[in-house]
Amino acid sequence: MRNTLLEDVEYKIETTRWGTWRRYGYIDGTSYHEFTSYTSLWGLPLVHYTYGRNPETGRRRVAKGIIAVGRLACGVIAIGHASLGLVAVGQLAVGVAFGLGQLATGAVAVGQLALAVGFALGQFATGYVAIGQFVLGKYGLGQFGFGTYLWTMHRSDPDAIAMFRSLPVIGPMLP
User: Fold this and answer.
1) What pTM was estimated for this model as a whole?
2) Is residue 143 part of a domain?
3) Among 3, 75, 95, 100, who pairs with 88 as Cys (CB 3.0-4.6 Å)?
4) What residues have CB less than 8 Å from 85, skipping those under 6 apart?
């Protein structure tokens, strides 16, 4: 990584049993923290955590690891404002298997805007099975929606009613 600020950066380095912390305190009171675990899998650290702006670049560093936590995170399990992973949690959660966030994607997605291949739950939900205020899917349960089998304010398909009532978590709560 090239030092774009052209300054020498003196990190406070702390080694623990599990990994290494790199810390830097700015004169204005803000700080940068980064933890990288010693254990790695497939060339990625088991845990990578970042916080703040990297003093070498002035930018946020992407947390990359099996478990990645940071403002920007990419990993098998990614947690951050913008996250990408097999399981992703964040405001923008791009998950392959599961996404949880304000805008979430995945095979299963839960969020204000949930875009899923399989099951979507959100205010705006789209997927094979979609539950939300506005839904788009093969089976939809919502206030408004488009789909093959819908249970909305204006449409009550018997197949949709039977399918949603059969769901173990949601079914018992439905009228």
Assistant:
1) 0.86
2) no
3) 95
4) 68, 73, 74, 75, 76, 77, 78, 94, 95, 96
